[in-house]
Task: inverse folding
């Protein structure tokens, strides 16, 4: 059974870079889309972006200038970097797996438990 | 402001049938599949419905999804107290960006 686990600092200073890693266990990172989603306290879900196992990426247009998602297939991990963070980036960050449906992303069926990131000096 | 529009709240009594709507546009719901996720308090979202009306194994048939044009709906029949949660619709748009609705908080009275 595939499981995802987010890891990274829980506190990031304003203007610095938020860095998170998602480790995939119980299955291969191949042939899926791997997404990051965030949820500010008391608010709804926001899709940040995804990376296909081959390395192609797609980002939320509103975050595109600050986001980089990368994959390390040898470690079965993918990572998120969000630059120049502000308090508005404080949120629970989830990683999730989306299935590949005819070369397009489909449903997100496996989610990590999430990790809380606070942006504060 | 989410691109996919959901009512912020819904409610029902045990045993009732409740529906939650999700409105989008031709570039998202109108031309792509709709998904529904259930988020119980303090937990990660869980896939409830995929490709408009398909249920993953383990999801009770009390949950059903439908889509018409640029709108979609989630119906929950035989409402139970454990259904109290936030429900999110989602879709990919034509540029393959992921979209979520703002979420609907379902209260079981």
Result:
């Amino acid at each position: 059974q595939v499981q995802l686990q987010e890891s990274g600092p829980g506190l990031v200073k304003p203007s610095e870079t938020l860095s998170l890693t998602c480790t995939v266990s119980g299955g291969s990172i191949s042939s899926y889309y791997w997404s990051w989603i965030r949820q500010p306290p008391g608010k709804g879900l926001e899709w940040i972006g995804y990376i296909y196992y081959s390395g192609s990426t797609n980002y939320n247009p509103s975050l595109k200038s600050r986001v980089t998602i990368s994959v390390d297939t040898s470690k079965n991990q993918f990572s998120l970097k969000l630059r120049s963070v502000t308090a508005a980036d404080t949120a629970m960050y989830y990683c999730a797996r989306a299935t590949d449906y005819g070369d397009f992303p489909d449903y997100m069926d496996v989610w990590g438990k999430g990790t809380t990131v606070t942006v504060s000096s | 402001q989410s691109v996919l529009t959901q009512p912020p709240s819904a409610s029902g009594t045990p045993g009732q049938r409740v529906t939650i709507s999700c409105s989008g546009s031709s570039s998202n719901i109108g031309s792509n599949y709709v998904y529904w996720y259930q988020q119980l308090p303090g937990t990660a979202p869980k896939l409830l419905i995929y490709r408009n009306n398909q249920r993953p194994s383990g999801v009770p048939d009390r949950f059903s999804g439908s889509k018409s044009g640029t709108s979609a709906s989630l119906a929950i029949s035989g409402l139970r107290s454990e259904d109290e949660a936030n429900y999110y619709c989602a879709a990919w748009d034509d540029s393959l960006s992921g979209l979520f609705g703002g979420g609907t908080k379902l209260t079981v009275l």
Q: What stands out?
A: The longest strand of chain B covers residues 85-92. Chain B has no helices and nine strands. Residues 21 and 73 of chain B are 4 Å apart (CA to CA). Chain B has a mean pLDDT of 97.
